[in-house]
Amino acid sequence: MAEPRTPEKLLTAKPPVFHHNSHSPNASLQLPSPIITRRTRTASTSARAMENPMVTGVVKSFSRTKGHGFITPSAGGEDVFCHVSDIEGEYVPMPGDEVKYRLCAIPPKYEKHQAVHVQISNLTPEVHHKWEEPVFGSSPAK
């Protein structure tokens, strides 16, 4: 028989964790839940993010079809989540690209951060695709 769902049990329940495919090189990375996009971010959260300094990092992974990726901060620490709506510029990021971004706290606890206002500062030598180009199955910037 299932355990009753009392308010106390609901408060101590852990939020769902989304794991990537075990064959993925990013199997240890976790998506934030809920995913906060530029469109769903509150004005006050956006204003606080704009007060943060620009920091640098390197794109670890980015999937155009999934709409997100991760950035490894130059200063070290955990990889930072990045949503497609927070990429500024005409090119789709690729692993190895150097980027500048601001950190924005993720609700509800504001303990983790995501990258916002992401700008590619140094492209890798590989051919980069523009956002308006169609997505092809064999494209490296899926």
Largest sheet: 5 strands, mixed, barrel
Helical content (DSSP H or I, runs of 4+)? 10-25%
Number of strands: 6
**The first-level CATH class name of the domain at 53-120:** Mainly Beta
What's the pLDDT, averaged over the residues?
A: 76
Distance between the termini: 45 Å
Describe what this molecule looks like in 3D.
This protein has a domain at 53-120: OB fold (Dihydrolipoamide Acetyltransferase, E2P). The protein has helices at 7-12, 43-51, and strands at 55-63, 68-73, 80-83, 87-88, 98-105, 113-122. With 142 residues, the chain is mostly beta strands.
Give a quick rundown of the structure.
The protein has 142 residues and is mainly beta.
Descriptors:
Ca-reg_mRNA-binding_domain; mainly beta; 142 residues; CSD; OB fold (Dihydrolipoamide Acetyltransferase, E2P); CSD_CS; 2 helices; phosphoprotein; single chain
Draw up the topology in text:
Layout: H1 7-12, H2 43-51, E1 55-63, E2 68-73, E3 80-83, E4 87-88, E5 98-105, E6 113-122
Parallel strand pairs: 3-6, 4-6
Antiparallel strand pairs: 1-2, 1-5, 2-3, 5-6
GO molecular function: mRNA 3'-UTR binding
GO cellular component, one term: cytoplasm
Keywords: Phosphoprotein
